[in-house]
Amino acid sequence: MPASRSSASTLPPASVNFAAPASPVIAQPAQRRLIVAITGATGAIYGVRILDTLRRLGGVETHLLISAAGWLNIQHELQLTKNDLHARADVVHSVRDVGATIASGSFATDGMIVAPCSMKTLASVAHGLSDNLIARAADVTLKERRRLVLLVRETPFNLAHLRNMTTVTEMGGVIFPPLPAFYNRPASIDEMVDHTVARVLDLFALGPALSPAWPGLRGDDE
Ligand SMILES: Cc1cc2nc3c(=O)[nH]c(=O)nc-3n(C[C@H](O)[C@H](O)[C@H](O)COP(=O)(O)O)c2cc1C
What we know:
The chain has helices spanning about 5-10, 45-55, 70-80, 80-85, 120-125, 135-145, 160-170, 190-200; strands at about 35-40, 60-65, 90-95, 110-115, 145-150, 175. It has eight helices and six strands, in the order H-E-H-E-H-H-E-E-H-H-E-H-E-H. It is about 35% helix and about 15% strand. It is α/β, with parallel strands linked by helices and about 220 residues long. The chain has a single domain, classed as Rossmann fold. The chain has a six-stranded parallel beta sheet with strand order 3-2-1-4-5-6, sandwiched between helices. The structure holds flavin mononucleotide (FMN). Flavin mononucleotide binds near residues 41, 42 and 153. Keywords: Flavoprotein, FMN, Prenyltransferase, Transferase. InterPro entries: Flavin_trans-like (IPR036551), Flavoprotein (IPR003382), UbiX-like (IPR004507). Its EC number is 2.5.1.129.
């Protein structure tokens, strides 16, 4: 018997279909879901405004995580209670609950936002530590090739911060420091925050764009 014929006997039974799909399929969850984590960098308002915006838009199940330092900053910067925060999300997870649904890639989500993201959580994500549910959910988001957006906040940056941002970018994450824009001439902090939140949520294509397209600008010297 020719060699090619004998090796054919090791093929799997014909009933098993290993045919590749014509094009890559990125699974969309039947229920749209976003994980929102608030960590201990300054700027808790970003995480809270993201939850409020998602609640206003509707149609997205929100899973909220808040680190211990995140709570500290929420109380200091916003004077909000745990109940105030919990009421803004559909599901609230303890950061210690590494057995939660969102700790598994089998639980489909549209992705995860960490807002604000401390340098400590950035480091955990960059090094795949999964040492609490925030880092684990981010790790899962990356391994499942879902959208991960980190609103990293520190100033100035040291080399570890910069390297960790590069590492997360190389893994497919989006580093989105919440730096205010001035081209839209914001009249208040609320407008600055809303502008950033709109740009962040537009990365998830949850519906019509929230931030208006730049109309272009022509200089006098042309
Ligand atoms: C008032 C306050 C503001 C802070 N701001 C920042 C910050 O902007 N960026 C940062 O990386 N850490 C900041 N930290 C330090 C973090 O909270 C600290 O590193 C913490 O361990 C982060 O843990 P977490 O990522 O689990 O929330 C701040 C801490 C406090 C108390």
